[in-house]
Design goal:
It is built from three helices and eleven strands. The protein is α+β, with helices and mostly antiparallel strands and 170 residues long.
């Protein structure tokens, strides 16, 4: 693992691919509306890498268990995506794992409003994503948006999903 730069806060997320009989899907969360950072946004389970975590994989699995109760015995880590740096100062390591079904979920209601799945076929189809530009803090920001069942998946999560699609289709 490449050490994060001093200016950025290291974080890790799990990109959970659910092994369903009708095909793979991606498990996502919607954050609660009251959180101070990224309130209401769609995200992967994850968070800051803490000193007690031996690496990004450990952090992603720990955070996933804390947020949605998905324990590591249901997850087979298969790799990682490109490191993603956010405009809010995080350097995120996306850890990809295959999740065995059935699996229990115990959602932390403080952090997570909902958990839902998006078919991987939807994610890899380039027709389901668009680039959007918005001005934020005197700068134009360009980001991807994927709209699935009236949910806008954008920002870092959409960027990581596009990276996943590129890895799988190249």
């Amino acid at each position: 693992m490449t050490p994060p730069s001093a200016a950025l806060r290291p974080a890790a997320v799990l990109v959970p691919l659910i092994d369903r009989a009708d095909g793979l899907s991606v498990l996502l969360t919607q954050r609660t509306a009251h959180l101070s950072a990224h309130a209401g946004q769609i995200s992967f389970p994850g968070g800051r890498i803490e000193e007690r975590d031996k690496d990004a994989i450990e952090a992603a699995l720990r955070e996933t268990e804390e947020e949605i109760g998905l324990t590591r015995e249901y997850v087979r880590v298969i790799g990682r995506l490109d490191t993603y740096v956010t405009g809010t100062g995080f350097e995120i390591t996306p850890v990809v794992g295959i999740v065995r079904v059935p699996f229990p979920l115990v959602i932390d209601p403080f952090e997570v409003a909902q958990v839902f799945e998006v078919p991987l076929a939807f994610v890899v189809d380039p027709n389901n994503r668009r680039r959007t530009t918005r001005d934020f803090e005197q700068r134009a920001r360009v980001f991807f948006v994927l709209t699935y069942e009236n949910r806008n998946i954008w920002g870092a999560t959409a960027g990581m999903l596009v990276n996943l699609a590129e890895v799988l289709t190249d």
